Fold:
Amino acid sequence: MTGFILRRLAQTVVVIALLSFFCYFLMTLMPGDPIDEMIAANPTMTAEDAQRLRELHGLDRPVHERYWNWVTMIAGGDLGYSRTYRVPVSEILGRSLLNTSLLAGAALVLSLLVAVPLGVWAALRKGSRVDYFVNLFAFAGISVPSFWIAIVLILVFAVYIPIFPAGGTTSIDFGMTPGEALVDRARHLVLPVLSLSFLSIGTFVRYTRAAMIDAMSNDYIRTARAKGLSWDRVLIVHGFRNALIPLITIVTLSFSTLFSGAIITETVFAYDGVGRLVFLSIQRNDFNVAMVAFMISVSWVLLMNFAADLLYGVADPRITYS
Amino acid sequence: MTGAKPRRGIPTRTAWRLGLAVVALLVLAMLYGLAKPGMTGRGELPTNHGLKIGITQEFESLNPLIAQMSATFYLYSMVNRTLVSIDANTEFTAQLAVQMPTLENGLARLVEVDGVSKLEADWEILPAATWGDGVPVTCHDLEFSWEVAQSPYVSIAGPELYREVEQIRIDPENPKRCTFLYREARWLFNRRFQFYLLPAHLERRVFEAYGDQPEGYEKHTLYTTDPTNPGLYHGPYLIREVKLGSHVVFERNPTFYGEPAHIDRIVVLLIPNTGTLEANLRSGSIDMVSTLGMSFDQALAFARRVENEGLPFEVLFRPGMVYEHVDLDLDEPVLVDVRVRRALVHAIDRQRLTDALFEGEQPPALHFVAPADRWFTDDPERLVIYEPSRRKAASLLEEAGWTLRNDGFRYDAAGNRLRLRLSTTAGNKMREIVLVYLQDQWRAIGIDARIQNEPARSFFGQTMRRRLFDGAAMYAWTQSPEASPRSTLHSAEIPTEENGWSGQNTPGWANARVDRLIDELEAEFDEDRRLDLIHEIMWHYTNDVPVIPLYYRSITSVTPANMTGYLLTATQVPETNHVEDWNLEPARGAGAGERQP
Structure:
């Protein structure tokens, strides 16, 4: 087990290093550079000034040299300077990352709380009206665009029945007690979380249902029943546990995509998250912000894959790490 | 298979149902607990206690020397002021300075230094002006900004205007008075509203510690590390809280030297999705939308809804100084002949275009100078005006050797079809519609016009910058009032590899007479003579048609119905430059300015 973990961690580090160079290289292929943004903002900028600034920021050097400088800077604990926001990257990224983690985490928990019981229920009632209803709900979740559901939620719960804020991350009120601030924070999360969960619920319901139907149709379920085990034990220990393998895969992968999927939700709800930050930094050639965000995203995907591999063993003892 | 099927009536079914019901109840209870009926204050008019403004554009650190985004300057104008500014009537006025130095009032003088003609000007800062921490605003602050702007290690977006100043001499008796020596004798010296001030008493030590490192000053400036420090600001408001990507909270500055602001607190909220601005307004999450908010078509639609539904808002429009036009690539073989370019203008009806698409709120353009600018003219004696006429357009094309065939297109003697590529920024709905109109009008005179739009990133980053548009490209320029058109019209500003693609004369227009006129214009101190010079440039511009003028974009804003003293500005100086006049309780604050008609 320890050998497996160390081997996988080493592989993860190598993949992250390779992907970082690949991402950096791709960013340099995009037309224009940060100095072009300055020229666009100031038509009177001279060619000499543009050249001076390119040299100052190292933009005149070859890609591998720029990449190496970036790696050295990161290794030294400096995330760099955002040329979009004109502040150190750590200053903006930390807060946004925390906000997005909260949003994505809450959406994932809600999705699982709703989707897993619904999926199991539908699987146990395959072909019934309940099953058809759950399927309809799941397909609606998968098909409806997230920006549409977000706007509908705003109109219904912020405009026509004004019980939740239309957007933002918190209320701007300096007189709130910590308790009030916490409730206020949660209130601002409700609509974005509902919007973000809708798609995940649909996907998770479909996977849970399919995996449960598959698991419950195995011979060992009949054997377990024949041995006189209680239905609950058969369902949970023999059925649901075996259905967990595909579910673990989809949940761990979804958790990493929740970050990128949150861009639209964050934009519509004016939520101060990392998705919007990354989108803007790519648009404006802000290498430092984009690269750090890429690395977090890539690391997250790899770590979640790693976590999935470990969880497979927990869910199914037949899987070994030798 | 039978083993997989649950039996009816077993407790599990009930257990699952119970489980689901518990989850559902938990979720509903949580939502109920968090819900707060009427929390958003829908339908309530804001008071002078507080105002929430929605903007859709991102903002950055508020250090004026390194900032570039329009939204940052929108915010900056609430907290800081410059020596001169442009008022709502598009007139240059003294703001932080006691008065604008001119040759006429004797505060500016032409001098000769080492045989070179230069200019000296005496500036005096308002005696009562202090930073938010009580330290007086002095010429030392001007001198410090000037030093920082010239540092090779700081990324300043517009260092040229600081470099125009060769020397600053501060009066030892009164540090609020100083004399600027300008390298060249240019009449624009007293209109540099972008000459920003930094608080030397706070920022100098940061600059001394980090100014010799690349990006060192940017990373450590107090505008980034301590943005709520009152000593950084001297305008009508101070900053209480800044969260980049989210909001800024302003509170009235008790030490402001001018009239105190009416509104106690202003919150500017970033709402990046323009589609949700209206929902935010209606729900009461914001009270108004700034000029950096709704798109023009959205504002038009919202204005109709305000009228029909009696909503407590006012939608304001004002023609601005953003000039929408079509650049013609003068190196493109079909566009080399001026008759073809003139035919393109004759073939379109700009008045009909703006009436149909913009309900007449965006005036058609005749040239690059907007109506709000003192230099504007529509005098047919001073311009070449092309009335809409397909007959004239067709006749010009015939003269140029393009004859109409049965397929409805024109061909030259060698049998080449008259083709033109049209492009603009993909995703900009208004421009895309305008381009379809142009395509339709030009097809009607036999031109095979084909639209090929690109994302803004590659359109501006590559295609326009390197003059690769091969035909006609629609976009906009933002003009300053009475500004030299050098960067867009002088032949030295044609982007080339040699000049690092830095110019903005993207059509590639080279007219020796216009080059000379621009040089003369920049050195001419006589206002009437300047008017003659710019009008002659306009005549050449409209005669040669390197660009097809379309319309001047209007700026829009949505304000609460009870707001007075709010004036839209046509220039880059935002409306927040007179934020102290905004009043939400007119009865309590007599004397505020008038609402924009």
